[in-house]
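This part of the workshop introduces the protein records we will be handling. To make this concrete, we reproduce a full record directly below.
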Amino acid sequence: MAPLYGHPPLDATIAPLQVFSSQSASSPQVLTAAGNWFLTSGIQDPDGGVARYRLSDLGRNKPVSNEITGYAASTYAVLYEETGDQRYLDAAVLTARFLTETAWRPDIEQFPFENDPASPLYFFDCGIIVRGLLAVWRHTNAPRLLEVASACGRSMARDFLTEAAIHPILQMPSRTPLPYEKRWSREPGCFQLKSAMAWNDLAQPTSDDTFTLWYERALRMALDNYSSFLPGAASPELVMDRLHAFSYFMEGILPRVGRPLCAQALREAIALTSHHLREIRPLFERSDVNAQLLRARLFAEALGVQPLNEEEAAAEAASIASFQLPNGCFCFGRKNGVLMPFDNPVSTGFCLQALAMWRQRNEGNFTPRIEAII
């Protein structure tokens, strides 16, 4: 996955919304504020592309990222499902149109990281974009979305998948793998299973079992190496970043948790993530890690993998809510108790979905839809 987040210098505290209890975190106001931020903040260009994040201390966006635009498509679909507000479906359609008509490279059947001829190709990005297109397709049945998603899914296997590993990055224009580096986004690992979910998601609408076989191969690789992923670094800050990546493994394994080996892996992953999050959070805490962990817990309970640790889940919900800013978005992270100046669309998508799921669970109407995970 492309490096989405930096750690800029911080000169001042950003005041969060005063929403810190797990009960108030369930308020529909949280979802409304986050949705309005997506629609009105300027994080999305008029043509549909979505910026990587906004530097709130400087008042400007980082460049548009095709991967982040894919995440936004999934987020708009969730917002539409939660609210029925046509504005979110309209925004989802605009986002998907940008991906299929501007970002898509039909000559190579791939989505580059950015829309530049020299931009590299990331396996992770492509899978996130495919899942975003499918999220919009489920509401529109637009043939173009399924057509492009299917073509990209096949090229992901053609260009990235080998018997031994999934190459994370291909250089352009040769599409040859870049040498692996000793950092999680630039070497193969269990986190790639989140993106491989795109293959699993494509199998049913295309009636093509080859997609299932590719997902199963990625699943076997992830099960072989997930236990060595954490802590993976000496610096607590880097471990927190790896928790974000490791949480992608928890999400990616969900389609197969009916298998005992996968259920056990999910239980172990939840315990490990919870341990490291609580150990590191006084120094550095990411909002998305809390959201990813809470989502994994709620799915694990709903799918019969393990009972919910309600005390820890409530603490994660309250922590997520503490990252929401007055403008409605969710800040990327907090260092030494101070929020960092990142208005982040991915963090906002993960957090709003986690809190919506938490509310539904507490109201007794949570339905686990794995395909809807942002």
Summary: Residues 61-225 form a domain with the Glycosyltransferase fold (CATH 1.50.10.20). The beta strands are 54-55, 60-61, 121-122, 169-171, 176-177, 284-286, 333-335, 338-339, 342-343. The chain has two domains: 14-43+229-374, 61-225. The CA atoms of residues 30 and 346 lie 16 Å apart.
